[in-house]
């Protein structure tokens, strides 16, 4: 049993207890040995799973209680393959990031002391190459809003101690407080100064230190703050920095922000995890220095679930938690309507299931039916309708209107392709359609009149009608529904 320690500011910490790993190089570094043992897939699932309390007799309670009890479902967490992948990514980044930062390695101690003196004397240059070779990488978690990106990372980090207090290591005095991970929110204006200030305040809040007062002054520039962040990270043995809502970087300052984090990784050895919506993906595509670090196991693309076994597993895992008086078995019809109305977004699945039960309780029907699901969606999902309609259409141009819903497709060779600048591509496609239409239209003009009886759904009939009426084939195809109409609002333009 690991002993808990409370810091002077009341924050709970853990007394260092050193584990032996089958990996030899992990057993010479106190920062690594103080971390929990690595887990297999079965253990990961068990640690992540959260099951709400449930008793069948609760279905007999008065409706005024049951409409509250059903909200327990918001605490449910059903692990899926993507969650296991994120767990492994997080643990790998933390363990590997500490490899080059062994506080008992003479070369590393010499580097930390030299760097610290330079920073204090304000002679440190972040562009100067050093002998320190970092083992820190960065992770990338990009996915739809509502899929549980932040929740999953937080649940994984909850299985690591946040603060570890060391005293002695293998008989040697080692007075060290280790901060394993810290989570920061990307400022809405992508301000590096605001992010730096947030770092110092968050560290002080957790450890009860006074770094903000010690290092920060009103006129301190961002270039001066970054080395100070680095030296604080070294002093507290920071294992991982998580940067959430990274899509805010697209507003401005992308290049400067990327330089910022590359320096943090290269010069001070701190791994970083970026979490964001699909809107942030182009940021990393244009930065080779970041892209090469997230390639492989450090990149998780999390789209909405397809209507497949994974979706059914998720729905089946929550279906038993019904507080209506009449238990409804999960039918194929209900599976299809739930997918149709949520498009496989896990947060919406839970919300719909909760609201459907509440609707059944309020109405007195006390059972889940397709009609109840449709009524619930109509009354409670009004704001989501345009987004869900765009997903249901499968039209990439309509989906592109909502930046946090753009699907990122992963190809067989693990490279990621994204539909950039949809308006520009749409214009190009319309030109191509017109060119093809003109070609086909001219090619179907026979030298001798030949009677052809095409069916109404035959596209060749459209071109013949266009030829006879002197109407553009493209317009007629649009009218007949063969081409999706893309409405261009006032002020919009093609790129």
Automatic annotation (TrEMBL):
Domain annotation ORC1/DEAH AAA+ ATPase: ranges: 135-279
Origin: domain of life: Bacteria
Stored Gene3D superfamilies: P-loop containing nucleotide triphosphate hydrolases
The name this protein goes by in its record: ORC1/DEAH AAA+ ATPase domain-containing protein
Organism of provenance: Paenibacillus vini
């Amino acid at each position: 049993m690991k002993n808990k320690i409370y810091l002077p500011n009341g924050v709970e910490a853990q007394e260092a207890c050193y584990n032996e790993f089958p990996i030899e190089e992990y057993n010479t570094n106190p920062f690594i040995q103080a971390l929990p043992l690595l887990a297999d897939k079965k253990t990961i699932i068990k640690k992540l799973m959260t099951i709400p309390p449930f008793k069948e007799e609760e279905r007999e309670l008065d409706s005024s209680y049951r409409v509250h009890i059903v909200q327990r479902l918001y605490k449910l967490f059903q692990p899926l393959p993507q969650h296991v992948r994120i767990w492994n990514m997080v643990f790998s980044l933390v363990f590997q990031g500490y490899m080059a930062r062994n506080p008992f390695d003479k070369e590393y101690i010499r580097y930390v002391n030299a760097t610290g003196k330079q920073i204090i004397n304000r002679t440190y240059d972040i562009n100067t190459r050093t002998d320190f070779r970092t083992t820190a990488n960065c992770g990338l978690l990009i996915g739809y809003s509502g899929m549980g990106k932040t929740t999953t990372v937080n649940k994984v980090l909850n299985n690591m101690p946040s603060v570890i207090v060391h005293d002695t290591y293998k008989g040697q005095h080692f007075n060290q407080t280790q901060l394993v991970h810290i989570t920061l929110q990307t400022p809405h204006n992508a301000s590096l100064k605001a992010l730096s200030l947030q770092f110092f305040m968050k560290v002080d809040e957790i450890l009860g230190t006074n770094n903000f007062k010690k290092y920060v002054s009103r006129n301190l520039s961002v270039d001066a703050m970054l080395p100070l962040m680095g030296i604080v990270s070294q002093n507290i043995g920071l294992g991982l920095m998580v940067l959430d809502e990274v899509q805010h970087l697209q507003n401005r300052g992308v290049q400067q922000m990327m330089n910022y984090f590359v320096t943090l990784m290269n010069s001070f050895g701190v791994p970083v995890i970026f979490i964001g919506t699909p809107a942030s993906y182009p940021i990393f595509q244009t930065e080779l220095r970041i892209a090469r670090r997230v390639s492989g196991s450090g990149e998780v693309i999390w789209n909405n679930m397809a209507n497949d076994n994974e979706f059914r597993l998720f729905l089946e895992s929550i279906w038993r938690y019904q507080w209506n008086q009449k238990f409804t078995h999960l039918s194929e019809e209900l599976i299809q309507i739930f997918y149709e109305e949520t498009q496989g977004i896990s947060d919406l699945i839970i919300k719909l299931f909760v609201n459907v039960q509440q609707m059944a309780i309020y109405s007195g029907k006390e059972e889940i039916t397709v009609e109840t699901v449709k009524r619930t969606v109509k009354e409670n999902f009004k704001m989501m309708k345009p987004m869900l309609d765009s997903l249901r259409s499968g039209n990439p141009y309509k989906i592109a209107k909502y930046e946090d819903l753009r699907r990122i497709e992963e190809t067989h060779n693990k490279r990621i392709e994204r539909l950039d600048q949809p308006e520009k591509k749409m214009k190009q496609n319309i030109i191509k359609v017109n060119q093809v239409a003109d070609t086909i239209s001219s090619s179907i003009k026979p030298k001798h009149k030949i009677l052809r009886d095409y069916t109404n759904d035959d596209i060749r009939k459209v071109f013949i009608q266009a030829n006879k009426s002197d109407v553009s084939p493209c317009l007629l195809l649009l009218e007949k529904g063969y081409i999706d109409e893309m409405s261009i609002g006032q002020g919009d333009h093609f790129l």
